[in-house]
Amino acid sequence: QVQLAESGGGLVAPGGSLRLSCAASGFAFNDYYMTWIRQSPGKGLEWISHISPSGSTLYSADFVKGRFTTSRDNAKNSLYLQMTSLRAEDTAVFYCGRGGRGFSYGQIDYWGQGVLVTVSS
Amino acid sequence: EIVLTQSPGTLSLSPGERATLSCRASHGITSNYLAWYQQKPGQAPRLLIHGASSRATDIPDRFSGSGSGTDFTLTISRLEPEDFAVYYCQQYGSSLWTFGQGTKVEVK
User: Given an 8 Å threshold on Cβ–Cβ distance, is A59 in contact with B56?
Assistant: First the structure.
């Protein structure tokens, strides 16, 4: 069965860095778009980025450009989110999700359980 | 960026009633690439509808999606106790995906 498991969250000081990982299993990882979504406490869902199956195409939300970098390693069936210059407002649960393949690839049909990132001194 | 506005913010209904949720886009959504998700407290979202009207795998047929262009609707024909949750729409017709702010369906 499809499984996505995020790791790497925790408490980090403002200005610090953190790298989240998402381990995928149960499907052909290198066939699917993957995405990062976050949810601040008590708030709605916020798209961060999505990356093509080969990793050659990446789109990111304006608010993270220059600070967050998304990548993938298809040999390791893993998705990553490198975050730098973290701010208090980045505190959130971060989810990785599986998109689709082909022309319609934006629906997120599987989600990880989420990992909490807290930015605080 | 396409902005999605969901209404109402909160919908207070009783089990067995019909729920109608709206999602309006600031610009037309290419190919009606709009999805709906359900989220319960402490859980990850679950995909309900994609392509505006196609039910995802194992989603009960009391959930239906409709609409095109800039106006989309999620309908729950008869609310079951497990349907009380927050619902989000998401567009993926542009390179920059966006979510609506959510509609909470609560027990009246």
Answer: no
Distance from C-alpha of B31 to C-alpha of B46, rounded to nearest angstrom: 22
What is the bridge-based pairing of β-strands A110-111 and B71-76?
A: unpaired
Of A44, A108, A112, which has the smallest distance from its Cβ to B102's Cβ?
A44
User: Do B90 and A108 lie within an 8 Å CB cutoff?
Assistant: yes
Q: Which of B88, B91, B97 sits opposite A44 (nearest CB)?
A: B88
Cα–Cα distance measured from residue A81 to residue A75, given in angstroms and rounded to the nearest whole number: 17
List, for residues B24-44, the tens digit of each pLDDT value. Answer: 999 999 999 999 999 999 999
What is the tens place of the pLDDT at every residue in A42-53? 999 999 999 999
- Distances in whole angstroms, Cα of residue B85 to Cα of each of A14, B27, B79: 33, 27, 11
